[in-house]
Amino acid sequence: MQVRDFQDEDAPLLREIFRSAILRHAAADYDANQVAAWVANADDASAFDARMRLRRPLVALLADRPVGYADLQPDGLIDHFFVAGEHGRRGVGNALMTCIHAVARARGIDALRADVSRTAQGFFRRHGFRGEVEQAVEVRGVVLHNLPMHKRLRGEA
Length: 157
Known about the structure:
CATH topology: Aminopeptidase
Number of domains: 1
Strand content: 25-35%
CATH class: Alpha Beta
Largest sheet: 4 strands, antiparallel
Shape: globular
Number of helices: 5
Structural class: alpha+beta
Order of helices and strands: EHHHEEEHEHEEE
CATH superfamily: Gcn5-related N-acetyltransferase (GNAT)
Distance between the termini: 23 Å
């Protein structure tokens, strides 16, 4: 597996990764209305692609094909972290998280944070993130719950 920087031509594939991750995995933790509202964030292809070009995520590749992506913003926010539905539990997320940590250290970022879906909370905990208090967020008029999580990097090897 390889993790590399985003390239503009990745955007349509990342949109499909986003959709498949939600449809295949998040459906276990969110009802049909919540899943539909969340996945609809990729309906406007040009807007989604523009967000990816702005966020410049890291892209995980298997056989030269994107299978996951995650971004790291300058303030330590991980806004998107998604693995294609058919590639879950195959090390893609671990590879992305390892890269996120390396990039954060290289940039001098002292802490990471993310608003983590119910589906991904165990994964983030296994990577040393701690949760705060679950919050309700509105997406396209539908309430979804996530957990703000954080991790201090200072002093990490």
